[in-house]
Amino acid sequence: MNTITKRILVVGGGTAGWLTAALLAKKHGQSIEICLVESSDIPTVGVGEGTWPSMRTTLQKIGISESEFITQCSATFKQASKFVDWISSSSEEYFHPFTQPAGYGKFDIAPYWESLLSGSSSAPTFCDSVTFQSHMCKMGLAPKNITHKEYETVANYGYHLDAGKFAQLLKSHSISKLNVKHVVANITQVNQHPDGSISNLETDSSGILSAEFFIDCTGFSSLLLGQTLGVPFIDKSDILFNDTALAMQVPYLDENDPIACHTISTAQSAGWIWDIGLQHRRGVGYVFSSKHQSLEDAQQILKNYVGAQAEDLPIRKIEFKTGHRECFWRHNCVAVGLSSGFLEPLEASALMLVETSANFIADQLPLTKAEMKPMEKRFNQVFTAKWRGVIDFLKLHYVLSERQEPYWQDNKDTTSIPDSLQEMLMLWQHRAPSEYDFLQSYEAFNAASYQYVLYGAGFKPDFSLLAHTLTHGDRAKKQFDVTAKAAQQMALRLPKHRELINQIKQQGFAKL
Ligand SMILES: Cc1cc2nc3c(=O)[nH]c(=O)nc-3n(C[C@H](O)[C@H](O)[C@H](O)COP(=O)(O)OP(=O)(O)OC[C@H]3O[C@@H](n4cnc5c(N)ncnc54)[C@H](O)[C@@H]3O)c2cc1C
Predict the structure, then answer these.
(1) Cβ 5 vs Cβ 371: under 8 Å
(2) 49 and 20, same domain (yes or no)
(3) pLDDT for the residue numbered 7
(4) Whose CA is nearest to atom 33 of ligand 1?
(5) Which of 178, 219, 238, 257 could form a disulfide with 338, with the two C-beta atoms 3.0–4.6 Å apart?
């Protein structure tokens, strides 16, 4: 019989579970029951404080007001990641901003930057030449002002947020506004149909929960996809070495201290430290490879970074396995969030993968059992490509480093670099990363991101073989001038980041 999808069960109440339930309920809640079951005994991972700009669309879609979100989640704006000491340990830094390089999609500005500017020692960096956003970050400016409407932008932005408060907001909004049914219970048994698909879940306190479609958001335990359906975990620790994070919450010394409008990522001897400015505190954490450094040394490195304040603050240790499931959808079950895999916090791609997975499922929801198989195939194709792309991009950051410690040297060992990335690095000796390098809609990171990291980290291309194709010199020069002027104008038009946050808390943005 071709069963019709009438009920979807989301298992797990972390950020992945609630985001997925909310997006599904918004689209299908009129005719399909969306139920979320979570355990009160198994805590959520509770970290994950950086998002992509895609979170603006997600929040808007599920009907959460931006002012409410910023106020309730202690959220701030994120415009970029700043990488400090990644090239060597002598305080060099570069930005990966969310705004694309000038002319992106129309013509490629990178070879002109190289030929017009890079010869001189005082030449601006690639990023400073092609976008005003790195200048804004350095000036501590917000990406808009209080007269803009909710979710409207002057400069592209995502958020920094308190993960615990965010999950609470998503939960109360999903239950009260989107009609998501909520069950608190432990799953004691997962039952399957003879064909292997999941039929129902037995719980300790809410009886048997049945559905036609199951979303596994059970975090690292991957209860449905991994444990029940037996989909293997593909270990990627031979490429990305980090496996432990030490996290600290550091209050501001003064409530008016400036808030960075970008994630600060500082390389260390066996990993890197994230530093994320929320409204009332910073989230600071050291993510490192336990094969390259002892826990004691790693703790000391984090404490040295934080300074005197660190003595009174607790450190939370989180261990993780780097990799992802062999496939993400099997039969009538799809894994979203940590249950599908985790690489490491660099470039904050985990919540973006949650958003894209949930959107795919909501937009392409199999309405009958017959549709399940083709959707499974499509989803697995798309997300296999996405995970591969994320791995390549994260690895790029390490491969470009000139640091000498064993951790960094091991990262440059070609046996640890995926063939796909090695091939692109070879091609980029003579041409800039372009749309041709990526299967566009399947890729998590586009050519713009690769250009920022590649040239920011000091990769020296030689575009001379392309000289006969460089016919946009005047246009490029104009773009460089426009960027420089735009950066000056932003300083006059936009408030400091904390000033805007205070205004939002007092009066909020105009509603869209
Ligand atoms: C150190 C670190 C830093 C990170 N930084 C970022 C970042 O900056 N940006 C970003 O995008 N992401 C980041 N992430 C990832 C991010 O934290 C996760 O993607 C996000 O929190 C989603 O987690 P989750 O909902 O999949 O899992 P969890 O938060 O672990 O939730 C799992 C849920 O499943 C439930 N559950 C489990 N087993 C059962 C059972 N048997 N019965 C009933 N319920 C069950 C639990 O109760 C819980 O509700 C980071 C992760 C780590 C480890």
Answers:
(1) no
(2) yes
(3) 96
(4) 12
(5) 219
**Which of 38, 76, 228, 320 to mutate for ligand 1's pocket (most ligand atoms within 8 Å of CB)?**
38
Structure tokens at 2: 């071709």
CA distance 148 to 153: 8
Helix/strand/coil for 18: helix
Are 348 and 263 contacting, i.e. CB atoms less than 8 angstroms apart?
Answer: yes
For residue 326, the Cα-to-chain-centroid distance in whole angstroms is 21
Q: If you take atom 6 of ligand 1, which residue's CA is the nearest one? A: 48
Torsions phi, psi for 468 (to 5 deg): -70, -15
Which residues, at least 6 apart from 143, have a Cβ–Cβ distance to it below 8 Å? 77, 79, 136, 153, 154, 155, 156, 157, 261, 494
Give the Cα-Cα-Cα angle 351, 354, 360 (nearest 5 degrees): 145
378/313 same-domain check: no
Strand, coil or helix: 510: strand
Q: Is 496 inside a domain boundary?
A: no
Span from the CA of 195 to the centroid of ligand 1 (angstroms): 30
- What's residue 115's pLDDT? 76
The whole-number pLDDT of residue 4 equals 82
Distance CA 426, CA 415 (A): 16
State the burial class of residue 223 (Cβ atoms within 10 Å of its Cβ: 0-12, 13-18, 19+): buried
327 in ligand 1 pocket by Cβ < 6 Å? no
Dihedral sign (CA 258, 264, 267, 272): positive
Provide the pLDDT for residue 90.
79
The alpha carbons of the chain give a radius of gyration, in whole angstroms, of: 23
- The residue with tokens 């790029």 is 396
What's the domain range around 257? 244-319
- Taking residue 494's Cβ as centre, other Cβ atoms within 10 Å add up to 21
What's 164's domain CATH number?
A: 3.50.50.60
Pair (285, 332) in one structural domain:
no
Question: Interior CA angle at 249 toward 244 and 255, to 5°?
Answer: 155
User: Which structure tokens are listed for 25?
Assistant: 């309920």
Q: In what order do the strands lie in the sheet with 341-342?
A: 233-235, 323-325, 341-342
Give the residue among 213, 291, 245, 266 at the shortest CA–CA distance from 46: 245
CA 173 to CA 150: how far, in whole Å? 18
Residues of the chain with pLDDT under 50: none
**Listed residues 333, 357, 384: the one ending a domain:** 384
How many Å from the N-terminal Cα to the C-terminal Cα in the chain?
A: 46
Is 369 found in the same domain as 311? no
Distance 226 CA to ligand 1 centre (A): 15
pLDDT of residue 437: 87
Domain count for the chain, please give it. 2
What's the pLDDT at 92?
87
Which residue do the tokens 């704006």 mark? 77
Same domain, 271 and 366: no
Q: How far is the CA of 498 from the centre of ligand 1 (A)?
A: 29
Q: Are 164 and 300 in a shared domain?
A: no
* Residue 46 domain-assigned (yes or no): yes
Is the domain of 305 the same as that of 360? no
Same-domain check for residues 347 and 227? yes
